[in-house]
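Hey, quick one: can you model this chain's 3D structure?
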Amino acid sequence: MSVIVVFSTFPSEDKAADIARTLVSEGHAACANLVPAVRSIYRWQNELCDERETLAILKTTRERFDALKARLVALHPYEVPEVIALPVDGGHAPYLAWVAGD
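Sure thing. Here's the predicted structure for all 102 residues.
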């Protein structure tokens, strides 16, 4: 079982929810948590930016990651969307099995 967590930020809670619903309904992710009012400070095109965003935390598997990433990038409004995958080294076995679809 190779569960991963994928992070992506969005310009609004509504946009994050729309894309999260699509990813879950299409089977790319088991679930998504949305964390509104994340403050992101970053450099973009030689300018310092300080923006409010919504963070999506998506749970999926390594095997579904490529399809999730492709779909997320296709739907995302940003020119360069954040798509970061982190491995899950442990957890509650029944939950991990649910994420994996077992």
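One thing worth noting: Strands lie at 3-10, 31-44, 47-61, 84-87.
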